[in-house]
Specification:
The chain is of the alpha/beta class. Helix content is about 45%, strand content about 5%. It is globular. It comes from Auriscalpium vulgare.
């Protein structure tokens, strides 16, 4: 029977309870939120009080349970009373981005039930009753055990972090304290310790005081314990936690060292110390403190591991299953610390991670046979398992390498239950490396797994232990699984280590290649290895974060698999989408998954879904910079500048150094003329943080901090990131002889000694281990893409000559070449481990409004071109051979194709709409390929009608578009988009036709191998800015020089194809140039903008110039009065109708000075976008005063015809200089209004377009200036005093002659460009288009012009009014 005294406590101590089902009965177990007398529960434990039972004997098994900070002592636990199971957070321990958690479920043990009660005793009698109640050690242990349950349950229900072992003060919650206060622990423990003044009860009492934040009391109790037992390690541990809570960190560390020396595997002490030495996100520490903490953490880790792990990483001591995850955590922590203190040897840093991975894969404990599986075994097993689980073809060589006494494995047999892949791989050893051809470069082929397949990997790898890591199982002739607690902890920890290693390899590959060496072979860091590590991590511990990171890696993989169970091939992006979606099932609000899925949606044109996903990510993580930037970019593309600006600003506030945020904010501010805080570069005028001007020559430094210098610096740093990436990429494919074979392949005869030596030196540099790629600006991935793009047009031309001969035309129709025999014209494929080219955060089109150097301008375009090339060249539909060339033009009629996404109501169509009908149909067949759906505008209808073949390819895949263009037998393909929105450069990167030319749409270089020519003129693109010109100026023997002899170059030029990575700022255009004789700008005003006069060209020619001019002056006066009725006829109207992004602070300051000097004048600007108006007005007031600012007028955007009509009301158009007017300049000049323009940069075509058009009027010398001071002076002279007469004369000549001047002569422009097309085709056929070829060398020796194409125009220009200077009829070079 139970002791009678137990029944007397009923009225005094009451506790809550809940029912737990155990086997076939229900036992009442305490719960802190219901109410039931304590004694009822104690009565149910009557059988556990041995002294109160006849013949009872206490159980003496000792045990310890640990969680996060404090420890319970070891004590006798009768009948194995249940231990506490608390949630453990498996954190990244310094590996950013990984926040996996493993919930460890509570494990409850059954208790015998019991009942019975007697009358209560008074509170005063409790002290007297307690000694009778606790009559033995066993009674004390039972009651103390119950006290533990109250303590643990109270805190667990209130806070998952605060249990019987406390956390740092910052982690405590008031609810946790209240939970402890709500329990009868203090009186209960006081009773127990009062009866038995020993360490056991005092330890828990100290914990309770700590939880109540009675730190001083906790401190004294733990010190009292150490007086009783000086070697009590638990008290030392708890004392350290208390000291840390009191801010006495150094004393806490000393206590933990004392405890650890007594018990080296005291994991709570180790984890407490390491946690203390790693500051939280809210803590700051000095550099000295950080270094000291890292060293101490390293000392703790090394002290513990020295007793378990040998220096080489081998395990030398037994590690029990419940210790495995603790050892892994210490290994992982040491690896992190080693990296942070800057350990030089990368393999030394990674050794601990490899040991942490190998530890749980050893055979079950105890490992009687001493078998040791290695990291190589794991990775090879994951590779083989990936092939099996994905139903991929397993190579026979690999199957034959597997040990199989009496049988031969097949892919099907490896899927049978009981086949332990890891053990098979271990037994096979080095034979598998030979079978997978890893011995040469140590790189696995890429295997594409879908999520469900990766999740099943452990069951294939560890079949004998049912998918559980072997080392945490017990060995009793077969693997006995561990408790669920141990399994979850170890699987989660192993997943964390795998992720940590994968992330390290990804980061290290940007700087160097990591090699793991073992007797069986080598493994090199690669994308495939990273994928294998992630696959295993996901299989062991499914986590939303691993799904996300795996998706990121796999999205950039070019591999593809044809799965018969699914529709169509599975590509990297498609697989990535499945990982993101699968991760969102686990964590629907995971911001990284949302934003990455949104990015995929945007890439596939689903913009509404993308915006929704970005918005959700921001909702759940308001300061998530990537989501903010992505959404801002989409809003900016939609013209919502103010909204975009807000999101960019939020992103910069969250991360001031994020390149995409900084550059996006800068471009958005430029778009609305918000120059405050712009700073200064190159000693030009700048703007400080208060919006005040920083004048040139002021005492301020040449560069003043601001968002513009930051953007330029970020651009340069991003460009430099690619140097050192893809190291030895070309060596993965072959040696020098291998690459020389490819280069020689384009030529029918062997190279001469000079040329061979040049190429061999180039490839030797890439082989050289000592070659400093960063110092020499080597982007090896870019080198390989450039080489392939250098080879492909030459191989295509070789195929043409082999099939048709060197004929530029055919008098009978010839068949289109099939792919039969195409392997003779193969191009070297990109290695599967090619790291995708990085691109700067600045888009090429955005670079128009930035003062970038020639080199930066070139490289911004080049890097985007490389990304396009990579994306296209890695498409599986693209054959290994070049696409077959078209047959020779039938009867000399060349097929030309124009590709554009702007064949609608767009400025490009406004300018180019008539050229299709003006082409000579005897010489050309005209195709147009529209990449956007019809808007049913008159522009679209005209282009559709006047082309021979019009194809709407909106929605077509690259493969479909390329195949149709090839079937159309296009000889010359015109790119009208460049790097503008909606362009389809991917089509050009596939090279479906022989000659590819950039025209009109993008005023700059593409700097890409898929663009052969750029149509321009010598004003827009001075010859000195062309790579071909720079190459021609080199000394004849320069190819023999080493790179060190030419500091600007890195020695990686391919003939005249100079490496864009060169340090030179002398050139920008990688294309050869087709020089138009007047201007490269095509206009259509002569055909489509005749509504102002209502006269045809012929009718107008019959009217005298004086009459034409008088009529125009009347129309002009009417237009002025209609727009500005308040102005007098003598008021000068200046205007600029460009979008606001083209207006920079320097030209605006000039305009303000002009307004101040010409007092009877106004400046008319376009309200485009509307947000710019307020900024411009504020700046005007600040810089020039209210009187000047009040003379700025804004007009709304209007129709094309009205826009041109407005132009005639203006006296003088003031052009922008960072990026000049293009279409707007043509509109203004057609209306007869003169412009003043300054082609500021030689290397920026976009800044020179206005000057190009001005010269094409024959009046350029009066409208083009050479500096800002001259700009201001010319404007003032022309609009004051007698200068107004010169301005009127200039206007009269422009207007009267507009039907005759070359700028508006579309038919003349078409005839001239056709000359360029024919010459480009002729050179391609003859081989003279390829510098360094035998044909090119022969042509040069014969004195023929080779390289850029110069078009002559000998047709006379008949002007109505003579000009001071005659129009030039050939390209001005």
């Amino acid at each position: 029977m139970s002791h009678p005294a137990l029944q007397s406590i009923i009225p005094i101590l009451q506790i809550p309870s809940h029912a737990v089902a155990v086997s076939d009965r229900t036992t009442t177990v305490p719960h802190p939120f219901s109410h039931e007398p304590l004694v009822n529960y104690l009565l149910s434990l009557g059988q556990l009080f041995p002294s109160l039972q006849p013949g009872g004997v206490g159980h003496s098994e000792t045990w310890t349970t640990t969680t996060q900070g404090f420890d319970r002592p070891r004590f006798s636990a009768p009948y194995n009373l249940p231990t506490s199971r608390t949630a453990r957070a498996l954190t990244d321990e310094g590996v950013a981005g990984y926040l996996m958690a493993s919930e460890v479920a509570d494990s409850e043990e059954p208790f015998a039930s019991g009942s019975g009660s007697q009358g209560p005793i008074s509170p005063e009698g409790l002290v007297t009753a307690l000694p009778v109640l606790i009559a033995s050690e066993a009674d004390r242990d039972a009651l103390l055990s119950y006290a533990y349950r109250i303590y643990e349950s109270s805190l667990r229900w209130k806070s998952s972090g605060l249990s019987h072992r406390p956390l740092p003060p910052s982690s405590e919650s008031s609810s946790a304290v209240e939970a402890v206060q709500a329990t009868p622990l203090l009186p209960l423990l006081s009773m127990i310790s009062g009866w038995s003044h020993d360490a056991t009860s005092l330890l828990l009492l100290g914990c309770v005081h700590f939880a109540l934040r009675n730190y001083d009391k906790s401190l004294s109790i733990n010190r009292e314990i150490l007086l009783i037992d000086p070697h009590n390690a638990e008290a030392m541990c708890n004392l350290g936690c208390t000291l840390r809570a009191l801010g006495r960190k150094s004393e806490a560390i000393a206590c933990w060292w004392d405890a650890l020396r007594l018990r080296p595997r005291y994991w709570d002490v180790v984890h407490n110390a390491l946690s203390c030495l790693q500051p939280s996100a809210t803590e700051t520490e000095s550099v000295e403190d950080a270094d000291n903490n890292r060293q101490q953490a390293l000392n703790f880790c090394s002290f513990v591991l020295s007793r378990i792990v040998e220096e080489e990483g081998n395990i030398k001591a037994t590690v029990a299953p419940d210790e495995v995850d603790h050892v892994q955590r210490v290994l992982n922590t040491r690896a992190i610390v080693l990296e942070r203190i800057g350990a030089v040897d990368i393999n030394a840093q990674l050794r601990d991670l490899l040991t942490a991975i190998e530890l749980p894969i050893h055979p079950p404990w105890p490992n009687v046979g001493g078998v040791r599986y290695t990291f190589h075994d794991v990775v090879m097993a994951v590779f083989l398992g990936s092939l099996i689980v994905s139903n991929a073809e397993v190579p026979d060589a690999l199957l034959n390498a597997l040990p199989s006494p009496g049988r031969r494995y097949t892919a099907e047999s490896l899927r049978e239950p009981g086949i332990d892949i890891l053990h098979l791989v271990h037994l096979a050893g080095s034979q598998l490396y030979d079978a997978v051809t890893l011995r040469q470069d140590g790189v696995f082929p890429i295997v594409l797994l879908l999520p469900e397949e990766a999740l099943h990997l452990p069951f294939f790898l560890f079949s004998s232990s049912s998918g559980v890591l072997p080392a945490i199982c017990s060995n009793d002739g077969h693997a006995i699984p561990p408790s669920e607690d141990i399994r979850r902890r170890c699987h989660a920890r192993t997943a964390t280590v795998l992720v940590s290693l994968a992330e390290r390899l990804q980061e290290r590959r940007a700087r160097s290649s990591v090699i793991f060496t073992e007797s069986s072979g080598i493994l090199r860091s690669s994308t495939s290895l990273v994928l294998l590590l992630y696959y295993l991590a996901l299989g062991l511990q499914p986590s939303a974060t691993i799904f996300n990171n795996l998706g990121i890696v796999i999205a950039e993989v070019s591999a593809i698999r044809n799965d018969v169970t699914r529709d169509g091939p599975v590509t990297g992006p498609l697989a990535a989408r499945t990982y993101y979606e699968r991760g969102l099932l686990l964590h629907p609000t995971h911001p990284f998954l949302l934003v990455n899925l949104g990015a995929l949606a945007k890439d596939h044109g689903n913009h509404s879904k993308a915006q929704l996903l970005f918005g959700l990510a921001i909702h759940h993580k308001p300061e998530f910079t990537i989501a903010l930037v992505n959404l801002a970019n989409m809003l900016r593309d939609e013209g919502k500048s103010s909204d975009a600006l807000q999101y960019f600003q939020r992103a910069v506030n969250a991360d001031p150094d994020l390149p995409e945020a900084v550059s996006g904010l800068a471009i958005s501010r430029i778009a609305v003329c918000d120059w405050q805080g712009r700073g200064r570069v190159f000693n030009n005028m700048g703007v400080d943080n208060d919006g005040h001007r920083i004048f040139p020559g002021s005492p301020a430094p040449e560069t003043v901090a601001g968002w513009l210098p930051q953007v330029l610096e970020l651009t340069d740093s991003q460009i430099a990131l690619d140097y050192g990436r893809n190291i030895h990429l070309m060596r993965q494919s072959g040696n020098i002889a291998f690459w020389m074979g490819w280069v020689q392949r384009i030529q029918h005869t062997p190279f001469g000694a000079h040329k061979r030596g040049s190429w061999e030196r180039t490839f030797q540099m890439l082989e050289d281990e000592t070659f400093d790629r960063t110092a020499r600006r080597v982007d090896e991935g870019g080198v390989l893409i450039r080489l392939i793009e250098w080879l492909r047009p030459r191989l295509q031309r070789k195929w043409y000559v082999d099939a048709y001969g060197k004929v530029a035309r055919a008098d009978q129709r010839m068949e289109l070449i099939t792919s039969t025999g195409g392997n003779k014209y193969d191009w070297p494929p990109l290695p599967p481990l090619f790291d995708i080219p990085l691109v700067p955060c600045i888009m090429p089109f955005n670079a128009f409004c930035l003062p970038l150097s020639a080199r930066a301008t070139r490289l911004v375009s080049h890097r985007h071109g490389l990304r396009t090339s990579y994306a296209t060249l890695t498409q599986t539909w693209l054959p290994r051979h070049v696409l077959p060339p078209p047959p020779p033009p039938f009867r000399g009629k060349i097929n030309i194709g124009y590709v554009s996404g702007d064949f609608n109501d767009h400025p490009l169509s406004h300018l180019i709409q008539s050229v299709f009908g003006l082409h000579d149909r005897a010489q050309f067949k005209v195709f147009a390929y529209a990449m956007s759906p019809s808007d049913n505008s008159s522009y679209r209808q005209k282009i559709e009608t006047e082309t021979d073949v019009f194809r709407d390819m909106s929605g077509w895949s690259t493969k479909e578009a390329v195949e149709k263009i090839r079937r159309d037998q296009i000889h010359i393909l015109l790119n009208l988009g460049g790097y503008t929105r909606g362009a389809r450069n991917d089509i050009f990167a596939a090279r479906p036709c022989p000659v590819q030319i950039s025209l009109m749409g993008f005023a700059g270089t593409t700097a890409a191998g898929w663009s052969d020519y750029l149509v321009c003129d010598p004003v827009a693109c001075p010859p000195t800015t062309c790579a071909f010109d720079a190459w021609q100026k080199r000394p004849v023997d320069s190819m023999d020089d080493s790179p060190s002899d030419m500091p600007q170059d890195n020695g990686l030029d391919f003939e005249a194809s100079l490496d864009p990575e060169s340090a030179s700022n002398d050139w920008v255009y990688t294309e050869k140039l087709i020089y138009m004789p007047h201007t490269f700008m095509l206009t259509d005003h002569k055909q489509s903008s005749r509504g102002d006069e209502g006269l045809s060209v012929n009718d107008r020619a019959k009217i005298l110039p004086e009459i034409l001019w008088e009529s125009e002056m009347r129309r002009r006066a009417e237009q002025r009065h209609r727009l500005f009725p308040d102005l007098s006829p003598d008021t000068i109207i200046y205007a600029n109708f460009n979008q606001a992004y083209k207006i920079d602070h320097q030209i605006f300051a000039v305009w303000m000075r002009i307004l101040a000097r010409v007092t009877d004048s106004i400046l008319c600007l376009l309200r485009f976008p509307p947000d710019a108006e307020a900024n411009l007005m504020k700046t005007a007031r600040d810089w020039a005063g209210e009187a000047v600012a009040s003379r700025i007028r804004f007009l709304d955007v209007t129709s094309k015809n009205e826009h041109i009509m407005r132009g005639r009301a203006v006296d003088l158009f003031l052009d922008t200089v960072e990026c000049s007017a293009h279409t707007v300049a043509a509109d203004v000049l057609w209306s007869g209004t003169p412009i003043i323009t300054w082609p500021r940069y030689e290397h920026k075509m976009c800044s020179r377009v206005g000057a190009s058009m001005a010269y094409a009027t024959g009046l350029g010398s009066q409208m083009v200036v050479r500096s800002l001071p001259e700009y201001e002076a010319r404007v003032v002279v022309l609009t004051t005093g007698r200068g107004r007469d010169a301005l009127i004369d200039l206007r009269r000549k422009l207007f009267v002659n507009r039907d005759s001047i070359p700028l508006f002569d579309t038919a003349r422009w078409t005839r001239n460009v056709e000359k360029g097309y024919k010459e480009a085709w002729r050179r391609w056929v003859l081989g003279t288009a390829f510098e360094g070829s035998l044909e090119w060398e022969a042509s040069k020796r014969a004195g023929n012009v080779v390289g850029n194409i110069i078009i002559e125009d000998r047709d006379p220009v008949h002007l109505r009014l003579p000009l001071r200077y005659p129009l030039l009829c050939i390209a001005r070079i």
